[in-house]
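Residues determine shape. We examine one folded chain.
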Amino acid sequence: MPRPAPLSNASTGSYPRFDTQLTPRTPHSRAGRAEEAYTAAELEQVDFDDDDNYSSVVQQQQAPLLSSSASDSFPATTGYRSRGDDFDAHAPKRTGLTTDKILSRLPLALYSSVAAVLLVLVFFSLREPEALKKYVGVTTNVSESEAAGDLEVMPTSTMPTSTPIQQQQPPPNIILISYENYTSFPLDPLEYRAECLKMDSGIRAQTPYWGTDKSGMYYDVLHVDEQVGYEASPDESSICSRTMTYQLDGWAGLLTDLALMAQVAALARERNATFFVDDRFWNRGKWSDYFEDVQAGQPGPEPGCRPPPPEEFVACPRTARHWLMNSRTARHHLDHDFMEHYADPYGHNLNRMKPFYEFGFKSFSETIRPNAQTAQLIQSARQELSEKVTAHYRNPRSDDGTPMGYLAVHIRRGDRKPTWRLPYGQNYIALSEYVDAVVQSWTRLGLEMSPSNDERLVQPFVYIASDSPEAANEFASSFSPDRVFSLSASESEELRGLASPGEYFQDAWKDLDEQVRVKATRGMVVDFAVLSGTWASDDDITPDGTVCTVSSVVCRAAAFGLGWNRSFGELDQMGMIDQEHMRWVDVDTKARVLPAWEAYRGDTYFLRPRPWLTCRQHPDSRVYTPVQSQSSLSETAPVR
């Protein structure tokens, strides 16, 4: 069989026709020209009779697929259509900046330089404001020591002209706290909170509640009476050696402030410090509008000493010589460490809380006391209540003439939601819960029997205090009018004017008229006294029990007036409330949360949750349900 002839690209024979043509594979061959294809105008100029006709299918396949760069079919130029027809890949590259480039980038460089200079000036003004003023030629009426950051503001009365104060280095164990960025003192509550956040930022080693870290260093500011050359004016008393101050700021409800203040006053007694109250930022008026000077009941270890200059107040740490606390910084101090340090280490549940109860009980008895005007209003309310109770029962309870008592009810509305979960669509605890608690407590405590022992049942008499007039009226409708009393129902026009004007919302409180705020605050003090029996003498009528919701600080603080044993009964070794004899009745959690009582709110912004906060099964519940906190550590509505 003859051997077939080899294929030849030079064959001039006809090429079979195909429906499709083959695509060249090399971009630089003349047959390919992948990125330099002919345009329509170029194809019109091509000689189709030439054997190199590119448009011929036969020619495309007769030309070699891989041509040498030296062949005629290799393109003469190496340009790329994507870079322009005149691009030469072998041409030398131009480097360096041209005049056009420099001029085009000059504005950007100028703006960047100006921004950098401004940034440096801003940073310098924050760190060294006085030095910056000196450089720019601004003069101030402060001394050189003040400009250097030694003292922000110093009263002129403490600076004798004969003996100038010299700059003094702090003690070796003191790390100075800089307040050089502030111009007015005392700082407002949010500024003190910012300082505490800076102090507590990052990971800090565990230290004792009143101790320092392992280095033994303390944080504090310089004190004017420790400066070389300081001499007090002859008509001034000396500055207290150590102070603790509670700052009233208006960010919290009245009883929230009082409950926190009671704990700080107790710490001042324990740490041998003088206790003060600062009301410069209070939106309820002045402390003296309602209460006595705290120095009257708690003079401290140095009676008559004066508070420090306001620039020496330190919110954090608490170990500073002149410590100040408010409702915004309380979370940094009355926290888990505070509870662990002062709670009864051998007690369980409510027994662990007794030291804090004793703190608050003594503070409300000795330190936080109403002034003469407020005390007179409280006495007037108690006297009118006693007359109504006596007229209702007609018979004395005992031979000494003491009349039958009453049950007090506090109904909180406004921005205070219950702690325990409620049925869907219900925002507040139903008023029927309060009514049932009053009736059951009256029977449980044996108050329903007539004092004359004639087996006649005696109906309960109720004192109502509420921030909601509508809720108070609705609750009173469940009883006959002669068995209910409140400030709004008083015969005294002055007492009626102290009744709550409406539901209490902390966010809207600051927008009320000042006189309205003062009257509402004084009315709350009177309500609290009658609700709890606080500040009562031996001859005053006091409640036989108080029905309230533990979500309100008014309810928690009411236990101070009732007394420990009267409030919770005889506690067993496990610290459980005596359900048969307790007179502090919570219709919110109903003792399903342990501990059932705390001296102050444990689930609002100023305190962290308790590690021992547990739940137990209530007789009315078949499941263990944790408390649903209504707030977090962020900003929440404080309670009244």
